[in-house]
Design goal:
Layout lengths: L1 H9 L6 H4 L1 H12 L8 E5 L5 H8 L3 E6 L2 H14 L5 E4 L12 E6 L9 H14 E12 L3 H8 L7 H12 L1 E2 L10 E2 L3 H10 L3 E7 L9 H4 L3 H14 L3 H4 L4 E7 L1
Parallel strand pairs: 1-2, 1-4, 2-3, 4-5
Antiparallel strand pairs: 5-9, 6-7, 8-9
Amino acid sequence: MDKIQSYYNNNYDENSRMQRYPLEFMRSKEIISRYFTKTPMDIADIGGATGPYSFWLASLGHNAHLLDFTPLHIEQAKEYGQKHGISLASYHCGDARQLPYADNSFDMVLLMGPLYHLQDQADRLQCISEAKRVLKPGGTLLCAAISRYASMLDGFGRMLIDDERFFDIMDEGLATGRHLPGDTPYFTQAYFHIPSQLADEVAQAGFEDVDLIAIEGFARAVNTGELLKNEKHTKALLEYIRKTERVPEMMGVSDHFFAVSRK
């Protein structure tokens, strides 16, 4: 965990990530919105980094509680809130495996980052179980994961394979799900899921009827940057991502996917 925190403190600008990946942000908000049942809802944004989803939720009138493991992210979130006059219900620097909230507190819990930073399954199950504990009966859990194949697709898409060390990183990831960058400049250590495995872990933590939804879907295979510059193309892209968002055979090509269930 120290390596992960050091990465975000010193090597990666998480604060502007959603600006660099607008399709992920757009689609995630769209999917989350489907599960709004009232306004306001009490929503926990666990592992929410600098709070892009929390501030969006607050702008819609919800009571958003932000928790992240990295103190810098919480500081940046507070600065953003003060600058833009948006108040969150609470800010916490904490661990997703030990949430500082009472039982049955939230209408919705978002796990937008913790599961792909916990390499041990026991830790991931503890994280999901904590989310279940703080959810109200009938509340909705949305867990985001990174695809097992994202590193390979990134390696060839961005020509990271020109670095011979990246082959070892890809091979380890494909074999075990563990992303181990060592002393290379690539993404910090992480865990990448097979879609069905994510659903199984959510079920093991006590949830039933787990729904898998691709976030970016097949967009990895096309020139997304160019498509998003054109309103007509963007509309068509989103329409066909929606049409195929639950197709099992296509799920793994999506960089991220959600597991959704109710308590």
